[in-house]
Structures are given as C-alpha cells and as structure tokens.
C-alpha cells in the first residue's frame, strides 16, 4: 500500500512551508564544510543523508510550531478557569440572598447579607490581584484617568486635580485594566 506522498510527491512538496533565514542557518550548521563531489557514490550518499537530516529537522520544527500553537490556543481557552472556579461560591451566596429577599420582612438583615456577599466578592478579587484606584483629590494623570469633563474648581488647591469619580478604575497586578472616569477641576 502506498502513502499519499508516494502517490503525488508534488502535493507533498507544496505542503512544506517555505524555509526562512533561521531554518537556512540551522541547515547550514548541520552541513559539513567539505562535501564529496556529487558525481561519486560517496558524494551521492552523503548528499542523500544530509537531505534526509534537513527534511527531518524541518519536519520536527514544523511539528514544534503546530504543537506550541495548539498549546497556546488551549491556554487562552482555559486562562480564566481559576478565576471562574473561585467566583462560584460568591455566585452561590448571591443566589441564596436573592431567595432570602423574596420572603424577607427585615430589610436590615437582607442589607447585612448583601454587604457580607459584597465583602467576600471584593476580598476574592483582591486575592486575584485586582485593586481599585484612589482618584479623588489626586492630580490628573492621563495614564490612569479618563477625563469626562471639567468643572470650576471649588478652590485654588483643586485646580488640575480630580474632583469627582464617575466610574472607578482598577489595577490588575499593577497594570491598569480599567481607567477611572473622572471630573477635573479647572
């Protein structure tokens, strides 16, 4: 039984990606400096051997490239798995709070329950590296703040500083993941 490569060698050659400069350099490192003349039997066998080494190296590199690409896609698919698993207990607490609110007569008890769930949620996010920005009273910084509008500053000291925060900004491990939307004193 013959393989598809034996049936149509032109198709097999078409499937091989073009060699780049790195692959050429790697192939040159494998090739000996002095090669027998191709006309002799030793020269032909040496050329065949080197060609075989080159093709194997090329195939190995191609397999490596495919494998790392596949692993990378898999990593992207499961990157948030740890966070999602950590959030499930908070989701359970919110569902219990929702059920309790339907029958609750005491608003203070419901409020305390929701505040406990909120604190648990904030604590979990902090453990995962999320940190809220402190913006009010700080000098405006375009690297972490997004100016929504400017209003007259209540005093001279507040000019160029954040007067109000419309939406909180957050850091994830010292990287800004959401800019704080702020009002600046003019």
UniProtKB/TrEMBL annotation:
<comment type="similarity">
    <text>Belongs to the GrpE family.</text>
</comment>
<dbReference type="GO" id="GO:0000774">
    <property type="term" value="F:adenyl-nucleotide exchange factor activity"/>
</dbReference>
<dbReference type="GO" id="GO:0005737">
    <property type="term" value="C:cytoplasm"/>
</dbReference>
<dbReference type="GO" id="GO:0051082">
    <property type="term" value="F:unfolded protein binding"/>
</dbReference>
<comment type="function">
    <text>Participates actively in the response to hyperosmotic and heat shock by preventing the aggregation of stress-denatured proteins, in association with DnaK and GrpE. It is the nucleotide exchange factor for DnaK and may function as a thermosensor. Unfolded proteins bind initially to DnaJ; upon interaction with the DnaJ-bound protein, DnaK hydrolyzes its bound ATP, resulting in the formation of a stable complex. GrpE releases ADP from DnaK; ATP binding to DnaK triggers the release of the substrate protein, thus completing the reaction cycle.</text>
</comment>
<dbReference type="InterPro" id="IPR009012">
    <property type="entry name" value="GrpE_head"/>
</dbReference>
<dbReference type="Pfam" id="PF01025">
    <property type="entry name" value="GrpE"/>
</dbReference>
<keyword id="KW-0346">Stress response</keyword>
<protein>
    <recommendedName>
        <fullName>Protein GrpE</fullName>
    </recommendedName>
</protein>
<keyword id="KW-0963">Cytoplasm</keyword>
<keyword id="KW-0143">Chaperone</keyword>
<dbReference type="InterPro" id="IPR000740">
    <property type="entry name" value="GrpE"/>
</dbReference>
<feature type="region of interest" description="Disordered">
    <location>
        <begin position="1"/>
        <end position="48"/>
    </location>
</feature>
<comment type="subunit">
    <text>Homodimer.</text>
</comment>
<dbReference type="GO" id="GO:0006457">
    <property type="term" value="P:protein folding"/>
</dbReference>
<dbReference type="InterPro" id="IPR013805">
    <property type="entry name" value="GrpE_CC"/>
</dbReference>
<dbReference type="GO" id="GO:0042803">
    <property type="term" value="F:protein homodimerization activity"/>
</dbReference>
<dbReference type="GO" id="GO:0051087">
    <property type="term" value="F:protein-folding chaperone binding"/>
</dbReference>
């Amino acid at each position: 039984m013959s393989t598809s490569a034996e049936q149509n060698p032109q198709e097999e050659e078409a499937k091989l990606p073009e060699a780049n400069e790195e692959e050429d350099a790697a192939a040159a490192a494998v090739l000996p400096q002095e090669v027998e003349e191709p006309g002799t039997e030793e020269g032909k066998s040496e050329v065949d051997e080197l060609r075989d080494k080159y093709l194997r190296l090329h195939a190995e590199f191609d397999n490596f490239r495919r494998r790392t690409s596949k692993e990378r896609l898999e990593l992207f698919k499961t990157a948030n798995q740890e966070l999602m698993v950590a959030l499930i207990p908070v989701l359970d607490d919110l569902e219990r709070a929702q059920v309790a609110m339907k029958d609750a007569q005491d608003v203070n008890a419901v409020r305390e329950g929701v505040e406990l769930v909120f604190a648990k949620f904030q604590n979990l996010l902090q453990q995962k590296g999320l940190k809220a920005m402190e913006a009010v009273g700080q000098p405006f910084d375009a690297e972490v703040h997004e100016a929504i509008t400017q209003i007259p500053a209540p005093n001279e000291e507040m000019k160029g500083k954040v007067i109000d925060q419309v939406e909180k900004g957050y850091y994830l491990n010292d990287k800004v993941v959401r800019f704080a939307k702020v009002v600046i004193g003019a």
